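Problem 3 from the worked examples.
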Amino acid sequence: MFSSKYNGGIETSHGRLAIRLDGPQGGIPLLLLQRFRGTMDDWDPAFIAAIAKDRRIIRFDSAGVGRSNGTVPATIGGMAAIAADVVAALRLSQVDVLGWSLGGAVGLEFALNFPHLVRRLIVAGSSPGPVADGPQQHPRVPQVMTRSENDEEDFLFLFYPPSDCATA
Protein backbone atom coordinates (compact mmCIF):
# COMPACT_ATOMS: atom_id res chain seq x y z
CA MET A 1 0.00 0.00 0.00
CA PHE A 2 1.27 3.49 -0.88
CA SER A 3 2.08 5.77 1.99
CA SER A 4 4.26 8.82 2.28
CA LYS A 5 6.23 9.64 5.35
CA TYR A 6 7.99 12.94 5.91
CA ASN A 7 10.65 12.28 8.49
CA GLY A 8 11.38 15.95 9.05
CA GLY A 9 15.01 15.20 8.46
CA ILE A 10 18.04 13.05 9.03
CA GLU A 11 21.40 14.09 10.42
CA THR A 12 24.37 13.76 8.07
CA SER A 13 27.89 15.15 7.98
CA HIS A 14 26.48 17.76 5.57
CA GLY A 15 23.77 18.98 7.97
CA ARG A 16 20.17 18.06 8.59
CA LEU A 17 18.55 16.91 5.33
CA ALA A 18 14.82 16.82 4.64
CA ILE A 19 13.63 13.42 3.48
CA ARG A 20 10.49 11.55 2.38
CA LEU A 21 10.05 7.81 2.43
CA ASP A 22 7.25 6.42 0.28
CA GLY A 23 5.93 2.90 -0.18
CA PRO A 24 6.33 -0.30 1.80
CA GLN A 25 9.46 -1.31 3.65
CA GLY A 26 11.52 -4.27 2.54
CA GLY A 27 13.56 -5.09 -0.51
CA ILE A 28 16.04 -2.76 -2.13
CA PRO A 29 14.75 0.82 -2.08
CA LEU A 30 14.89 3.24 -4.99
CA LEU A 31 16.83 6.44 -4.31
CA LEU A 32 15.66 9.38 -6.44
CA LEU A 33 18.16 12.10 -7.40
CA GLN A 34 16.61 15.35 -8.56
CA ARG A 35 17.27 17.80 -11.37
CA PHE A 36 19.07 21.15 -11.06
CA ARG A 37 17.35 23.29 -8.42
CA GLY A 38 14.80 20.55 -7.87
CA THR A 39 13.44 19.53 -4.49
CA MET A 40 11.94 16.26 -3.34
CA ASP A 41 8.49 17.78 -3.90
CA ASP A 42 9.17 18.38 -7.60
CA TRP A 43 8.68 14.72 -8.48
CA ASP A 44 5.26 14.13 -10.03
CA PRO A 45 2.93 12.76 -7.29
CA ALA A 46 1.31 10.31 -9.74
CA PHE A 47 4.76 8.98 -10.67
CA ILE A 48 5.70 8.57 -7.00
CA ALA A 49 2.39 6.81 -6.23
CA ALA A 50 2.88 4.41 -9.14
CA ILE A 51 6.43 3.38 -8.32
CA ALA A 52 5.83 3.33 -4.54
CA LYS A 53 3.07 0.71 -4.79
CA ASP A 54 5.50 -2.16 -4.50
CA ARG A 55 8.75 -0.71 -3.16
CA ARG A 56 10.29 1.84 -0.83
CA ILE A 57 11.12 5.17 -2.49
CA ILE A 58 13.61 7.62 -0.97
CA ARG A 59 13.45 11.32 -1.83
CA PHE A 60 15.49 14.02 -0.15
CA ASP A 61 16.46 17.66 -0.46
CA SER A 62 20.22 17.84 -0.84
CA ALA A 63 22.35 20.10 1.34
CA GLY A 64 21.37 23.75 1.01
CA VAL A 65 18.33 22.93 -1.14
CA GLY A 66 14.63 23.14 -0.23
CA ARG A 67 14.04 22.24 3.42
CA SER A 68 17.60 21.00 4.05
CA ASN A 69 20.36 22.74 5.97
CA GLY A 70 23.96 22.90 4.90
CA THR A 71 25.75 24.27 1.88
CA VAL A 72 25.17 23.30 -1.73
CA PRO A 73 28.30 21.45 -2.90
CA ALA A 74 30.31 22.96 -5.73
CA THR A 75 30.90 19.63 -7.49
CA ILE A 76 28.98 16.62 -8.74
CA GLY A 77 31.23 14.48 -6.53
CA GLY A 78 30.13 16.51 -3.52
CA MET A 79 26.49 15.94 -4.45
CA ALA A 80 27.15 12.19 -4.78
CA ALA A 81 28.79 12.17 -1.33
CA ILE A 82 25.62 13.66 0.15
CA ALA A 83 23.55 10.89 -1.46
CA ALA A 84 25.92 8.34 0.08
CA ASP A 85 25.45 10.00 3.48
CA VAL A 86 21.66 9.65 3.08
CA VAL A 87 22.04 5.94 2.35
CA ALA A 88 24.34 5.55 5.38
CA ALA A 89 22.01 7.55 7.67
CA LEU A 90 19.16 5.23 6.69
CA ARG A 91 21.43 2.24 7.47
CA LEU A 92 20.99 0.74 4.02
CA SER A 93 23.54 -1.57 2.46
CA GLN A 94 22.40 -1.05 -1.13
CA VAL A 95 19.95 0.98 -3.23
CA ASP A 96 18.76 1.25 -6.79
CA VAL A 97 19.21 4.78 -8.12
CA LEU A 98 17.13 6.88 -10.53
CA GLY A 99 18.79 10.16 -11.45
CA TRP A 100 16.97 12.71 -13.54
CA SER A 101 18.85 15.46 -15.42
CA LEU A 102 21.54 16.78 -13.03
CA GLY A 103 20.53 13.88 -10.77
CA GLY A 104 21.64 11.54 -13.57
CA ALA A 105 25.16 12.99 -13.49
CA VAL A 106 25.09 12.73 -9.69
CA GLY A 107 23.90 9.12 -9.99
CA LEU A 108 26.79 8.27 -12.34
CA GLU A 109 29.29 9.79 -9.91
CA PHE A 110 27.57 8.03 -6.99
CA ALA A 111 27.92 4.67 -8.78
CA LEU A 112 31.58 5.34 -9.58
CA ASN A 113 32.52 6.56 -6.09
CA PHE A 114 30.30 4.21 -4.04
CA PRO A 115 29.82 1.10 -6.21
CA HIS A 116 29.14 -1.10 -3.17
CA LEU A 117 25.97 0.94 -2.48
CA VAL A 118 24.45 0.64 -5.99
CA ARG A 119 22.64 -2.40 -7.34
CA ARG A 120 21.11 -0.72 -10.40
CA LEU A 121 21.36 2.75 -11.91
CA ILE A 122 18.90 4.51 -14.20
CA VAL A 123 20.03 7.77 -15.80
CA ALA A 124 17.13 9.75 -17.29
CA GLY A 125 17.25 12.95 -19.34
CA SER A 126 20.88 13.55 -18.47
CA SER A 127 24.39 13.66 -19.86
CA PRO A 128 27.72 12.10 -18.95
CA GLY A 129 28.68 15.39 -17.30
CA PRO A 130 31.41 17.71 -18.51
CA VAL A 131 33.29 16.11 -21.40
CA ALA A 132 35.94 18.40 -22.87
CA ASP A 133 35.54 17.25 -26.47
CA GLY A 134 31.76 16.67 -26.25
CA PRO A 135 28.89 19.06 -26.93
CA GLN A 136 29.21 22.27 -24.93
CA GLN A 137 26.48 24.13 -23.10
CA HIS A 138 25.04 27.39 -24.39
CA PRO A 139 27.22 30.33 -23.25
CA ARG A 140 24.25 31.88 -21.36
CA VAL A 141 23.71 28.81 -19.14
CA PRO A 142 26.15 29.79 -16.34
CA GLN A 143 24.69 33.32 -16.14
CA VAL A 144 21.07 32.11 -16.02
CA MET A 145 21.60 29.15 -13.69
CA THR A 146 23.47 31.14 -11.05
CA ARG A 147 20.79 33.78 -10.57
CA SER A 148 19.33 33.69 -7.07
CA GLU A 149 15.84 33.50 -8.60
CA ASN A 150 14.73 32.42 -12.04
CA ASP A 151 11.64 33.57 -13.90
CA GLU A 152 9.57 31.63 -16.44
CA GLU A 153 11.78 32.73 -19.35
CA ASP A 154 14.87 31.43 -17.52
CA PHE A 155 13.13 28.14 -16.74
CA LEU A 156 12.13 27.65 -20.38
CA PHE A 157 15.67 28.50 -21.53
CA LEU A 158 17.30 26.05 -19.12
CA PHE A 159 14.98 23.08 -19.51
CA TYR A 160 13.32 23.21 -22.94
CA PRO A 161 14.69 23.45 -26.50
CA PRO A 162 13.87 26.64 -28.40
CA SER A 163 10.93 25.33 -30.43
CA ASP A 164 7.20 26.02 -30.48
CA CYS A 165 6.26 22.40 -29.78
CA ALA A 166 8.56 22.20 -26.71
CA THR A 167 6.94 25.16 -24.99
CA ALA A 168 3.34 24.83 -26.16
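Problem 4, a separate protein:
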Amino acid sequence: MFLQVHPIDPNPRYIKMIIECLLDGGTIIYPTDTIYGLGCDIFQHKAIEKICRIKGVEPAKAQLSFICYDLSDLSKYTKSISTPLYRILKSYLPGAYTFILPASKEVPKILQNKKHTIGLRVPDNVIARTILHALQHPLLSASLPGEMVEEYTDPELIYNKFEKLVDIVVDGGIGGIIPSTVIDCTKEPYEVIREGLGVWEE
Protein backbone atom coordinates (compact mmCIF):
# COMPACT_ATOMS: atom_id res chain seq x y z
CA MET A 1 0.00 0.00 0.00
CA PHE A 2 1.21 3.51 -0.86
CA LEU A 3 0.01 6.19 1.59
CA GLN A 4 0.58 9.88 0.95
CA VAL A 5 0.76 11.53 4.37
CA HIS A 6 0.97 15.30 4.84
CA PRO A 7 4.40 16.12 6.35
CA ILE A 8 3.06 18.82 8.72
CA ASP A 9 -0.54 17.73 9.36
CA PRO A 10 -0.79 13.92 9.05
CA ASN A 11 -4.27 12.55 8.36
CA PRO A 12 -5.42 10.73 11.57
CA ARG A 13 -7.15 8.04 9.49
CA TYR A 14 -3.89 7.22 7.71
CA ILE A 15 -1.99 7.16 11.01
CA LYS A 16 -4.61 4.74 12.38
CA MET A 17 -4.11 2.48 9.33
CA ILE A 18 -0.33 2.51 9.89
CA ILE A 19 -0.72 1.67 13.60
CA GLU A 20 -3.13 -1.20 12.86
CA CYS A 21 -0.63 -2.55 10.32
CA LEU A 22 2.26 -2.35 12.83
CA LEU A 23 0.30 -3.96 15.69
CA ASP A 24 -0.73 -6.72 13.29
CA GLY A 25 2.93 -7.55 12.61
CA GLY A 26 3.27 -5.49 9.43
CA THR A 27 6.35 -3.73 8.09
CA ILE A 28 6.56 -0.18 6.76
CA ILE A 29 8.92 2.23 5.05
CA TYR A 30 8.56 5.69 6.55
CA PRO A 31 10.19 9.14 6.50
CA THR A 32 12.56 10.40 9.20
CA ASP A 33 14.54 13.63 9.51
CA THR A 34 17.36 11.95 7.55
CA ILE A 35 16.71 9.02 5.18
CA TYR A 36 13.64 6.83 4.68
CA GLY A 37 13.66 3.93 7.14
CA LEU A 38 12.43 0.37 7.23
CA GLY A 39 10.39 -0.23 10.37
CA CYS A 40 8.13 -2.43 12.45
CA ASP A 41 6.79 -2.74 16.00
CA ILE A 42 9.68 -3.78 18.32
CA PHE A 43 7.43 -6.37 20.00
CA GLN A 44 6.44 -8.22 16.80
CA HIS A 45 9.05 -10.98 16.41
CA LYS A 46 7.94 -12.14 12.98
CA ALA A 47 8.06 -8.57 11.66
CA ILE A 48 11.60 -8.17 13.06
CA GLU A 49 12.62 -11.41 11.35
CA LYS A 50 11.07 -10.18 8.10
CA ILE A 51 13.06 -6.93 8.24
CA CYS A 52 16.23 -8.91 8.89
CA ARG A 53 15.47 -11.09 5.85
CA ILE A 54 15.00 -7.96 3.71
CA LYS A 55 18.33 -6.66 5.04
CA GLY A 56 20.00 -10.08 4.74
CA VAL A 57 21.19 -10.15 8.37
CA GLU A 58 20.58 -12.11 11.58
CA PRO A 59 18.56 -10.23 14.25
CA ALA A 60 21.27 -10.38 16.96
CA LYS A 61 23.94 -9.18 14.51
CA ALA A 62 21.81 -6.68 12.65
CA GLN A 63 22.75 -3.54 14.65
CA LEU A 64 19.20 -2.25 14.32
CA SER A 65 18.09 0.77 16.27
CA PHE A 66 14.89 2.09 17.86
CA ILE A 67 13.27 5.39 17.11
CA CYS A 68 11.55 6.82 20.17
CA TYR A 69 8.96 9.55 20.67
CA ASP A 70 10.93 11.49 23.29
CA LEU A 71 13.62 11.17 25.97
CA SER A 72 11.34 9.52 28.55
CA ASP A 73 10.41 6.90 25.95
CA LEU A 74 14.10 6.44 25.08
CA SER A 75 15.14 6.08 28.74
CA LYS A 76 13.06 2.88 29.18
CA TYR A 77 15.28 0.97 26.75
CA THR A 78 18.66 1.87 28.22
CA LYS A 79 20.19 1.45 31.65
CA SER A 80 20.40 4.47 33.94
CA ILE A 81 21.56 7.60 32.12
CA SER A 82 23.98 9.87 34.00
CA THR A 83 23.03 13.53 34.43
CA PRO A 84 25.80 14.80 32.07
CA LEU A 85 24.75 12.30 29.38
CA TYR A 86 21.08 13.21 29.84
CA ARG A 87 21.98 16.87 29.24
CA ILE A 88 23.80 15.90 26.03
CA LEU A 89 20.85 13.81 24.80
CA LYS A 90 18.46 16.64 25.65
CA SER A 91 20.52 19.17 23.69
CA TYR A 92 20.82 16.99 20.56
CA LEU A 93 17.37 15.33 20.43
CA PRO A 94 15.06 15.37 18.56
CA GLY A 95 17.59 15.39 15.76
CA ALA A 96 19.71 13.48 13.25
CA TYR A 97 21.63 11.45 15.83
CA THR A 98 21.66 7.79 16.91
CA PHE A 99 23.14 7.13 20.34
CA ILE A 100 24.59 3.69 21.15
CA LEU A 101 23.68 3.00 24.78
CA PRO A 102 23.62 0.00 27.15
CA ALA A 103 20.40 -1.96 26.51
CA SER A 104 17.90 -2.42 29.34
CA LYS A 105 15.81 -5.54 29.96
CA GLU A 106 12.95 -3.84 28.10
CA VAL A 107 14.75 -4.51 24.79
CA PRO A 108 13.15 -7.67 23.30
CA LYS A 109 15.42 -10.73 23.52
CA ILE A 110 15.46 -11.22 19.74
CA LEU A 111 17.25 -7.85 19.45
CA GLN A 112 19.75 -8.28 22.29
CA ASN A 113 23.28 -8.48 20.91
CA LYS A 114 26.45 -9.79 22.56
CA LYS A 115 27.51 -6.29 23.52
CA HIS A 116 24.13 -5.64 25.24
CA THR A 117 23.84 -2.30 23.47
CA ILE A 118 21.08 -0.62 21.50
CA GLY A 119 21.00 2.33 19.10
CA LEU A 120 18.37 4.88 20.13
CA ARG A 121 17.20 8.03 18.39
CA VAL A 122 14.41 10.61 18.47
CA PRO A 123 13.82 11.87 14.92
CA ASP A 124 12.81 15.45 14.22
CA ASN A 125 10.05 14.46 11.82
CA VAL A 126 6.32 15.08 12.32
CA ILE A 127 5.10 11.90 10.57
CA ALA A 128 7.52 9.60 12.42
CA ARG A 129 6.73 11.17 15.80
CA THR A 130 2.96 11.09 15.15
CA ILE A 131 3.24 7.35 14.45
CA LEU A 132 5.34 6.86 17.61
CA HIS A 133 2.93 8.86 19.76
CA ALA A 134 -0.01 6.76 18.54
CA LEU A 135 1.90 3.45 18.85
CA GLN A 136 3.05 4.35 22.40
CA HIS A 137 6.37 2.54 22.12
CA PRO A 138 9.38 2.64 19.77
CA LEU A 139 9.63 1.48 16.20
CA LEU A 140 12.43 -0.71 14.98
CA SER A 141 14.49 1.32 12.54
CA ALA A 142 16.75 0.05 9.77
CA SER A 143 18.18 1.61 6.65
CA LEU A 144 16.94 0.31 3.30
CA PRO A 145 19.11 -2.57 2.00
CA GLY A 146 22.02 -2.02 -0.34
CA GLU A 147 23.90 1.16 -1.09
CA MET A 148 22.26 4.46 -0.19
CA VAL A 149 21.28 5.64 -3.65
CA GLU A 150 19.38 8.57 -5.08
CA GLU A 151 16.23 6.51 -5.72
CA TYR A 152 15.87 5.95 -1.95
CA THR A 153 14.90 9.62 -1.58
CA ASP A 154 11.78 9.30 -3.78
CA PRO A 155 8.83 7.49 -2.11
CA GLU A 156 7.33 6.44 -5.47
CA LEU A 157 10.60 4.81 -6.57
CA ILE A 158 10.91 3.20 -3.12
CA TYR A 159 7.39 1.81 -3.51
CA ASN A 160 8.17 0.42 -6.97
CA LYS A 161 11.16 -1.43 -5.52
CA PHE A 162 9.71 -2.63 -2.18
CA GLU A 163 5.93 -2.98 -2.68
CA LYS A 164 6.12 -6.78 -2.55
CA LEU A 165 8.41 -6.79 0.51
CA VAL A 166 6.66 -4.37 2.90
CA ASP A 167 3.02 -3.67 3.78
CA ILE A 168 2.99 0.14 3.60
CA VAL A 169 5.25 2.77 2.05
CA VAL A 170 4.51 6.09 3.77
CA ASP A 171 5.05 8.99 1.36
CA GLY A 172 6.06 12.03 3.39
CA GLY A 173 7.74 13.83 0.51
CA ILE A 174 11.28 13.62 -0.85
CA GLY A 175 13.70 12.24 1.76
CA GLY A 176 17.34 12.88 2.48
CA ILE A 177 20.37 10.91 1.35
CA ILE A 178 22.59 11.34 4.45
CA PRO A 179 21.90 9.05 7.45
CA SER A 180 22.06 10.01 11.12
CA THR A 181 25.33 10.58 12.97
CA VAL A 182 26.04 7.60 15.27
CA ILE A 183 27.70 8.21 18.65
CA ASP A 184 28.88 5.38 20.91
CA CYS A 185 28.11 6.42 24.49
CA THR A 186 29.01 3.07 26.08
CA LYS A 187 32.57 4.25 26.78
CA GLU A 188 34.31 7.52 27.50
CA PRO A 189 35.20 9.65 25.71
CA TYR A 190 32.12 9.20 23.54
CA GLU A 191 33.06 8.23 20.01
CA VAL A 192 31.52 9.15 16.66
CA ILE A 193 31.36 5.86 14.75
CA ARG A 194 29.52 7.26 11.73
CA GLU A 195 29.61 10.85 10.48
CA GLY A 196 26.13 11.69 9.23
CA LEU A 197 23.75 14.61 8.97
CA GLY A 198 24.01 15.64 12.62
CA VAL A 199 27.00 17.84 13.58
CA TRP A 200 28.66 16.55 16.78
CA GLU A 201 30.41 19.25 18.80
CA GLU A 202 31.06 17.56 22.16
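Solution to problem 4. The mean pLDDT is 94. Residues 107 and 149 are 31 Å apart (CA to CA).
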